[in-house]
Amino acid sequence: MHRAWALGVLLLGLPAMNAHAQQGVTEIFKCRNEAGQVTYTNDRRQAEKQKCELVTSQINVAPPLSQPQARTPQGFPRETPRQSQSARERQREILERELAAEQQALSQARQALAEQEAVRTGEERNYARVQERLQPFKDTIQSHQKNVQALQRELANLK
Questions:
Q1: Helix 81-118 and helix 127-158: axis angle, to 10°?
Q2: pTM strictly above 0.70
Q3: Do 99 and 149 contact (CB within 8 A), yes or no?
Q4: If you write DSSP's letter for every residue of 57-85 in order, what string do you get?
Q5: How buried is residue 40: exposed, middle or buried, by Cβ count under 10 Å (0-12/13-18/19+)?
Q6: Which residue has the higher pLDDT, 128 or 7?
Q7: Residues 6+ apart with CB under 8 A from 133
Q8: How far apart are CA 121 and CA 68, in angstroms?
Q9: Where are the domains of the chain?
Q10: Please, are residues 10 and 40 in contact by the beta-carbon 8 Å criterion?
């Protein structure tokens, strides 16, 4: 039972040990105390004092914590300020066209709802059935309103 527990601790501790040792060699030692209890360590000095046996040794090739700044290759195309401004203008034009189309769709959806509200059939004797019939039109209006708001936010973010 102690061995299973110790092995579990070892397996859970390996990722943490690897995080501490960025580069180099990580060694795991199996130690027994006077009572015969098994423990594991990655501290070489402690292992030498207790005369532990080496269980595993691995070479760590993890990259250093701070990466050097990536340099742009010489042949890599760069965007000029003029190109960047042109791209923003194209984006603005596209968003304005989408906004106009969405506002048009919203007005059409409102008109369709108004037309449906004016219609009363003999089958709809209670107000709940009328509301049920009108709900898809209301949902369409709500969807278009949300789209208009989102497009207006996008346009405001471009300024």
A1: 170
A2: no
A3: no
A4: EEEEEPPPSSPPPPPPPTTS----HHHHH
A5: buried
A6: 128
A7: 116, 124
A8: 73
A9: 2-61, 81-158
A10: yes
